[in-house]
Specification:
Component of ORC, a complex composed of at least 6 subunits: ORC1, ORC2, ORC3, ORC4, ORC5 and ORC6. ORC is regulated in a cell-cycle dependent manner. It is sequentially assembled at the exit from anaphase of mitosis and disassembled as cells enter S phase. One of its GO terms (molecular function) is DNA replication origin binding. It is found in: Nucleus. There is one protein chain. The protein starts with 25 loop residues before the first helix and ends in a 5-residue tail after the last strand. It has 5 domains: 53 residues, no CATH class; 234 residues, no CATH class; 193 residues, Rossmann fold, CATH 3.40.50; 126 residues, no CATH class; 123 residues, no CATH class. The chain has a 5-stranded parallel β-sheet with strand order 2-3-4-1-5, sandwiched between helices. A 3-stranded antiparallel β-sheet has the order 8-10-9. By secondary structure, the protein is mainly alpha-helical. The longest helix has 43 residues. It is built from 37 helices and 10 strands.
Length: 794
């Protein structure tokens, strides 16, 4: 039969892979120009020609060479952005992300350092009883291989860095370590090959002293002399090698790390344990099993005989939540970075970590993508140069560090600043002040005045708010230390409450306030001392500027000092009108400070300790109320929403939809859209006739004609997909094939109908299999000539 079918596109199947080709560099462009004529390369629907002649068309006419030189940065405002501003954005991203990335790496190492140190101590202490025995070895029935079971978390993508840190620390301690992965150890010979190769690399050939009488026997065990066949690797070679190396390092161990224990074949691990146990009285072999699930996987994989040969001790390295809390503290709460996250973007970042994969690397990638998007696509990101944090570390910027911008802002940038609603509210608040009307008018018409005077004022207020917010979160953490564990929340959750809700609207803050009012005087005294130390530390360490709180008529250090003095000496409370108002609000009558009164039901609900506390006077209760009021006033100001701060639209990243679509893709929706609108996804003209026919019906019906009409020149899978959308849950294969044939037979290539039936059937079977592979349908045992539809919508 002559093959008369020709595909409409270069792709033979809808399920083939698609690759993204980056623009060529300057060297690649020179080589291409030497090999062929550039004038003959025009993009006419061919993907390869389109990529080779890719250019960014704008009024600035930025070419590939400019993209390569500037690291992908382009001039915004349709090419009208000054070149100095574009280069400043590139420089600022490098200055911000390099120390921030190093900070995140150090945080991860610091959090996991305790667990890694415990594993290293176990390795060093193993086989001590063997070395101190009289004969130097144990009898065979009592021989056991030391094994450490390490729970490394459910996210296997982060295990590489974790076990690499463990390997580096063990090697620095003088041990010989082999880090094995299941994909390279499918059988016992390959596993021994990988193990011995890595062990041999720990010691160079020249450092091994080979005597003349043993030189010939030692040559087969060295990595340079061993052949490529896996069968040449044996544990007896490791025993000979160890007899030479152990004379130099008596306290060293041979550590074998199985990074992903669940991925290894059970028989391979079982055989390795039996072999290692036979040699453990001569070679101190320590096995480290990395588990991502639970300890039951060892009992399910290994036999009882193998497990009885192990001296097992458990360790936990799953500290991803602690690492995330430390990263959020350094990056968001303590304002170590110029860029922060708004409530939408932060919720997206937190949900992907808590509800999806617990991945630290995914958290870092998402954070970097947000920083790149901020500096690549935001023309006002150049304002971050005015908030001048330290270049050496990621310490928080102070309000006094606000400096002038090294470049002059363009007219478009200044107008974009004036368009921000927070800036408009900031200027409206200035109208009522002395000389405020002139200040506002000059800020609206004079670009130099806006950049030199107004911008520093707004940035100082922004930095002051961040420092006050950091202090508020630190105070909440200090308060939680004196509360029951059920009322304590992690830092990541507290930060979400802080950016999403105001203090008076958050249920958790109300719970903390109620818990504060139930405290006794001794507990409140300890708490106030703790809060006083927190405020003093913040003022001394960060050179804090609480001008944001002062604008709300709140002096944070003074209020905390007053509360600490008041709770230490309740008798110093003066009987003024404020105290009378506090007493009336609490249902307390004005009495003599030393007198006591009958406790009401409201008093018992607010302070349950009064049921068994008979020594607390009304003066002490008024002091407790006053202290709680001071704390609530400070927290109400410090934890106010960031939307009240000027320029928050710029420095608080809000593009949560971009993060979700980039890091949480929906493949089913993408495949359905590609099959429903084939002309846009596989670069073909299959629906040109349909769109031309629908032009006669009017412009309003053009899109509906493109979406619903089935054209015989479409891809076979697209035809089958559109036909299956008209069916119910059960799809009859014969009816489906009949409809498919009626569409395909309209092609001009099918002249001989009898000869084309077998080809149509083959094309239909391929389309059905691709639909089954993509997950749209499945076979059913209920009706063998039917398939079940699995997807709906779109």
């Amino acid at each position: 039969m002559v093959d008369t079918y020709k595909p409409v596109d270069v792709f033979d199947s809808m399920t083939e892979s698609t690759f993204i080709l980056k623009p060529p560099t300057q060297q690649q462009q020179k080589k291409q120009q030497q090999q062929e004529n550039p004038s003959s390369r025009k993009s006419r629907g061919n993907i390869k020609n389109t990529v080779d002649t890719l250019s960014f068309e704008s009024k600035g006419n930025v070419q590939n060479s400019d993209l390569t030189e500037n690291g992908g940065y382009v001039r915004l405002f349709q090419g009208k952005e000054p070149i100095e501003s574009m280069r400043l954005r590139q420089k600022l991203f490098e200055q911000m992300w390099t120390p921030l990335e190093q900070l995140l790496v150090d945080i991860e190492k610091k959090v996991n350092n305790a667990g890694v140190s415990e594993v290293c101590k176990f390795v060093e202490s193993s086989y001590k009883h063997v070395e101190t025995s009289e004969k130097g070895q144990l009898a065979a029935p009592f021989a056991e291989t030391a094994a450490a079971v390490v729970f490394s978390g459910v996210n296997t993508g982060d295990h590489s860095n974790l076990f690499q840190t463990l390997q580096d620390q063990l090697v620095s301690g003088g041990h010989y370590v082999a880090l094995l992965e299941s994909q390279y150890c499918s059988s016992l010979p390959t596993m021994l090959k990988c193990l011995l190769d890595q062990i041999y690399e720990c010691v160079s050939i020249d450092s091994i002293s080979i005597s003349e009488n043993k030189g010939t026997a030692m040559l087969p065990m060295l990595p340079a002399s061993i052949g490529a066949k896996a069968i040449g690797y044996d544990m007896s070679l490791l025993r000979l090698w160890w007899s030479q190396v152990s004379s130099r390092k008596k306290d060293s161990r041979v550590v074998v790390i199985l990074q992903d224990f669940e991925g290894f074949a059970p028989m391979v691990v079982d055989d390795f344990i039996r072999i290692a146990t036979n040699y453990c009285h001569e070679i101190p072999i320590v096995a480290v099993f990395g588990l991502a699930t639970s300890y039951e996987s060892i009992h399910q994989s290994l036999t009882k005989a193998s497990i009885s040969m192990l001296n097992v001790e458990r360790f936990n390295l799953q500290r991803s939540k602690q690492c995330i809390d430390a990263a959020i503290r350094s990056v968001f709460v303590e304002s170590a970075s110029v860029l922060s996250f708004g409530v939408e973007a932060y919720k997206s970042l937190l949900d992907q970590f808590l509800l999806y994969n617990f991945s630290i690397s995914g958290f870092v990638k998402k954070l970097k993508f947000a920083a790149m998007d901020f500096f690549y696509a935001h023309p006002l990101s150049v304002l971050s140069v005015m908030v001048n944090p330290s270049k050496d570390d990621c310490t928080a910027a102070s309000a006094s560090s606000i400096c002038e911008c090294p470049i002059r802002l363009s007219r478009d940038q200044t107008e974009l600043i004036r368009m921000q609603r927070s800036v408009q509210r900031f200027l409206d608040a200035k109208v009522d002040s002395a000389g405020g009307r002139r200040y506002v008018v000059q800020a609206l018409v004079d670009d130099d005045f806006l950049q030199d005077t107004v911008l520093p004022d707004m940035l100082r207020q922004l930095v002051s708010y961040r420092q006050s917010y950091s202090l508020g979160i630190a105070m909440v953490l200090a308060i939680q230390e004196f509360l029951p564990e059920s009322l304590q929340k992690p830092l990541r959750t507290l930060h979400y409450y802080g950016v999403s809700q105001a203090f008076d609207e958050c249920a958790h803050w109300k719970t903390l306030s109620a818990a504060l009012r139930r405290m006794k005087a001794p507990e409140m005294e300890k708490l106030m001392q703790r809060l006083k130390d927190t405020v003093s530390l913040a003022v001394a360490a960060k050179n804090a500027d609480f001008s944001f709180a002062e604008s709300k008529s709140i002096d944070i250090p003074d209020l905390i000092q007053k509360a600490a003095v008041l709770i230490a000496d309740p008798d110093a409370l003066s009987q003024d009108s404020d105290d009378d108002d506090d007493q009336s609000s609490k249902g307390m009558a004005k009495r003599d400070p030393a007198s006591k009164r009958v406790r009401t039901r409201t008093d018992m609900e607010n302070r349950p300790f009064l049921l068994f506390d008979k020594d607390s006077s009304d003066q002490v209760l008024r002091a407790l109320d006053k202290c709680c009021g001071y704390i609530e006033s400070v927290l109400r100001v410090c934890l106010s929403p960031y939307q009240a701060v000027p320029l928050h639209e710029i420095f608080y990243y809000r593009h949560s939809l971009l993060l979700d679509t980039t890091f949480s893709p929906q493949p089913r929706a993408a495949v359905q859209a590609a099959l429903g609108k084939t002309q846009y996804y596989i670069n073909c003209d299959c629906c040109k006739s349909a769109s031309q026919d629908s032009d006669g019906l009017g412009g309003d019906n053009q899109d509906s004609g493109e979406d619903h009409r089935i054209v015989p020149t479409m891809n076979d899978t697209s035809i089958a997909y559109r036909l299956h959308q008209e069916c119910g849950r059960m799809i009859n294969l014969y009816d489906w094939f009949s409809a498919f044939s009626s569409v395909v037979e309209q092609e001009e290539s099918f002249v001989q109908k009898e000869a084309a039936q077998s080809e149509i059937q083959a094309r239909f079977l391929r389309a059905v299999e691709e639909m089954r592979f993509l997950g749209f349908i499945k076979s059913t045992q209920r009706k063998t000539d039917h398939v079940v539809r699995l997807t709906w919508g779109m």
